[in-house]
Amino acid sequence: MGNTVVVAMDGPSGSGKSSTSRGVADRLGLRYLDTGAQFRAITLWMLRHGVDVHDAAAVALRAALPVLVSGTDPLDPTITVDGADVADAIRSAEVTAAVSPVATVPAVRTHLLGLQRAIISEALLEGGIVVEGRDIGSVVWPAAAVKLYLTADPAARAARRTAENGSGSIAATEADLLRRDAIDSSRAAAPLVVPDGAVHLDTTAYGLDEVIARVVEIVEQAVASRASS
Fold this sequence. Notes:
The protein is 52% helix and 15% strand. The chain contains nine helices and eight strands. The longest helix has 21 residues, at 208-228.
């Protein structure tokens, strides 16, 4: 793109953030960062090191120990912990069940916030980045030129997540998504909220290509408006 840009993509699990973010970044030649994968990676490290994820003090004590590296290629996003590829391992049911309590620990969020801001700053030297998560526009990068908040009704979100996983019950997945919504929205540190100035997109009735096209249009309009002002 002609101007550097940060696109903040927030929303609950299963709303289409990941697929949309990668598609938009690819279309616009931007980098891509999945902050949720970072929280999952920290969680995986805690589990592998025998840390009780429900003991906030124990998690906080070790929050800065894992060495995370996030690749920002939207066509091949990678993540390693202590030099090992964990892209598949962080999607396990065990990690999914444990990530919410880890993500509520302020020390974890503070540690990752520094890492996330460093990645965004570096990406701005290359044109910009699409960053997805739950607090990007509100906490991680409030100055983002474009803020979006993606949602979908719980049934649609559960169906998408179950299809992604390739197995499982849609009803059970929906219950889990609603459980995570409640935790994410009520936590004291950086809760899930609609950021000020965000465009709210309900993706329930739309296909992925339609959502990507709409977001690309929003980003291009924002960049053009900023360039002419």
